[in-house]
Amino acid sequence: MVARARGSLCSYPWRSTSDDDHPPAATPGVVRAILGIAVGAAACGLAADDTPKAIPVEDLPPDLLDPNPPTSTTISGSPTGSVTVYLLVRSGNTTRLAPVEREVTNPSNRLELINALLTPPSADEQRLGLISSIPGDTVLLDTELLEESRELVINLSGALFDVQGRELANAFAQLVWTVTELEEVRRVRFKVDGETYRAPDAEGIEQEGAVTRSDYSALAPR
Fold first, then answer.
1. How many folded domains does the chain comprise?
2. How does the average pLDDT of the chain come out, rounded?
3. Contact yes or no for 159/137 (Cβ under 8 A)
4. Is there a single domain that holds both residue 103 and residue 209?
5. Is 169:203 a contact under the CB 8 Å cutoff?
6. If you write DSSP's letter for every residue of 36-59 in order, what string do you get?
7. Domain limits at 86?
8. Is 132 a member of any domain?
9. Is residue 68 a part of any domain in this protein?
10. Which tops the pLDDT comparison, 14 or 118?
């Protein structure tokens, strides 16, 4: 007679209490029962080697082996350089152009340069006494560069005319001095809403052709 295992799976069967030194052969059912108990007992035991082991280098992820892992992420469109634009500063009755550095993504892009100028003075710039005669809602529509004559045609929205007289002349001075910071630009013509417009010089006199920095020398920075 084969004894039935008692308790948990980790208990083990004991021998029959029969006095017969030669117990009868186990039936197939009994064999299956014994094998089941043996498997359960093995599951309750510990692995033969439960100590920590070093992982071979060839099995490590490549990123863990990089001696110089990246420490920062470059955000597309973030500022990568500065450009010089010209705002205005007033002292009594005197108005002068004042160079100011502003951050842009591509310093060599003339559209970014002009848009940087069209942005109204920041709070910090205002605290320094810097102003702009260009109306804040003025929009750059497009530009055209005539490479042979190094002449830039700037097309602006009609909001530019929200100012008149001396302020309008100051606005053109800011535009001309700013775009001629570009090596490829020496002369400037203007369009407003697609229509050719004669730019006034520093004295407010409309000029027939392109204008240059010399037309606004009275406002030159000091």
1. 2
2. 79
3. yes
4. yes
5. yes
6. HHHHHHHHHSPPS--S--PPPGGG
7. 81-219
8. yes
9. no
10. 118
